[in-house]
Amino acid sequence: MIGAPEKAHSLVAAHAALEPSLAAMGPATLRELRRNALAEFVRLGFPGPKHEEWKYTHVRALEETEFAPAYGAKVDRNNLKGTVGGLALFTLAFVNGERAPELDQPQALPDGVFVGSLADAFDRIPRILERFLARQAGIADGKLGSHLDMPFVRLNEAYMAEGAVVSVPSGVQVEAPIHLLFVSKAGAMPFAAHPRVLIVVEEGASATVIESYLGHGGTYFTNCVTEVAVGQGATLEHVRLQQETLEAFHLGATQVHQAGGSTYTSNAVSFGGRLARHDLGVRIEGERTETLLNGAYVGMGDQLVDNHTRIDHAKPNCNSFEVYKGILGGRATGVFNGKIFVYQDAQKTDAKQTNQALLLSREASVNTKPQLEIFADDVKCTHGATVGQIREDALFYLRSRGLGKAEAEAMLVFAFAAEVLEKISVRAYADLLEQTLFAKLEKER
């Protein structure tokens, strides 16, 4: 059950201090939206264990931490070497939720394509923001389904001032990937940042957009919301990496709306934090769409990694395919909840969902809950979940070929995750994720 807090939490109290600067950002309608969202967060409060959507993901530690507003910080570009932040991609960068142009890597883009900050977008593409901002996340029109009562989406809305906007006009093909880099750098005081991302790929256009969330030291809270609109016949590959520090909290929500004939591919990789959760919702609003959700999540030590997904098949003749794989060691906990809703009019739907988890220790655990709700009779829908450990026969086979135990285990774990990682088309990015996985496994030995 969600209950309102007895006194203003620091996440609420900080809003009053920032109100003058927030009021200067955006039109009057946005200011009203912020006020309403804050009031709704106060009403909802922090979710408790009796709330079904948060049954296995407890936020007590987050609630008990005092957070200051995000403060400015500098990150040396050299510190990003060896990470995805150091790749030679078109990059729009943020540090602690604020623009960090010194970390940008600009490249030429096709005419009409906008990649910039939310503040710049208000000046340069106001009609796009008026049409899409705070519409895809369902806050204005109530279309977010199970995400509708998520208090942290409301909290993000209350603080919405800065973030990234990608707008690709009709018929434009963007060949080079667009990288949105969000770096968190902790200081003496824990802070909270609330980045907002809007991605619009209009009719017949195509793009690859990467969101990366990286952390450096200490305790902080990243509370991010991403809205995605994929137009008629458009194609979007959307890569999302969450790689926070072991003391960090990360709560992210992504809502996608697909028009007819479009293709949306999500490749989401999470290396966890103290608490890391991502809610991904896709609403299919036109016929003959393709929706591909690929996810890999890794938790070690005492980490908690949570993935909630929801696909709303509202139109006929559409396909969705979902594969999520988890790797958990130490005392880590994984959560996967995947929902597929097939509406009465969504005949000829083909939907498949799979979640597999690999436990590397006796203390690691996973709570998995695949769900199907079908209200149409002419559909093909399947779902399944498996949880297991490294197969002894496979381990024996590799060791009989001269590999050490640790090396053989790492090879089997990598093969397990490869099905997801190999689907990322930006190979340099995928290669770094593979290296990160190996390094994380090495630390656990």
From TrEMBL:
Q: Which GO terms describe its biological process?
A: iron-sulfur cluster assembly
SUF system FeS cluster assembly SufBD core domain: from which residue to which, for each copy? Answer: 191-416
Q: Where's the SUF system FeS cluster assembly SufBD N-terminal domain?
A: 23-179
Tell me which domain of life the UniProt entry assigns to the organism this sequence originates from: Bacteria
Enumerate the SUPFAM superfamilies for this protein.
Answer: Stabilizer of iron transporter SufD
Q: Which family does it belong to?
A: Belongs to the iron-sulfur cluster assembly SufBD family.
What is the official name of this protein in its record? Fe-S cluster assembly protein SufD
Organism field: Fimbriimonas ginsengisoli
What gene name is given for the protein in this entry?
sufD
